[in-house]
Chitooligosaccharide deacetylase
Amino acid sequence: MGTGIFIVSLDCEGKWGMTREGDPGHAHLTDAGLAEAYRTLLSTFARYDIPATFAFVMALALDRDAFAAIAPTYPGLEFYIADMKAGRSEGWHLPRTFGEVRADGRHEIASHGFIHRPLDDGAYIDADLAAAQHAAAGLGLHPTTLVYPRNLVGHVDRLAQHGFIGYREQRQRPAGVAGRLAGIAAEFDIRPKAQPIKAKTNGVVPIPCGHFVNWRFGARRRVPISVTSARLRNLVKDAARTGRVAHLWLHPHNIATAPDTAVALEAALAQARSDADRGRLRILTQEQYCREVAASG
């Protein structure tokens, strides 16, 4: 039995992830609120010396002028254009915050697509990934792992040609209301299991889909912090015990709209650091994980 693995990934979207009718929390995503959420995350990761994977919607990392130069007529911008015309520019572009993440030096910058449009559409994926990688190149970056927008995985065989070596797998649960209810019910399972390592396929490494850090917003506020904290600590312990993978993920805007969400995350980080210091766990970014899996054959 090998040493367990711990990964944290963040879906960095801002308002790009809130472009469906009825998406919760849209009005709360201000530049200042989001910037403070990222700083909270960065300081928390620094406190436990934990590298994370920040998967950016690349449009969020650009300023408004740089984005306009790349995507003046890009499809799927209806919500964005409406907000710009109405003077609601908050939450769409955070180049300074992106710079703070990058300057920290310990974290991976991954891709979450160009504008958070789902990539399970075969007619669209190549154009989006090309635009995302072009935007990243303009920032002096070349992301190597992908978090699919809305966790809708598809056309994995096309990722390698865009320079990706791995992607986060999709959670398997029912669609619609049934899926949301199942997700909340799962938050009361305080003995979750770590996930196995899978071999490279289609030229890329599938990264275990992991466990969502409960966002204490709306109906999810009914899940006590103590329950979520115990759930995440036990997940980390299971990875250390079994040699499997504990992968946690969340959105920085979850912290902006429900700050106490960070309490449960910190409980997991403390457990991970403790197990890592005892040699029972290795803390990796998505990229580091993929390179290890690929090298192992």
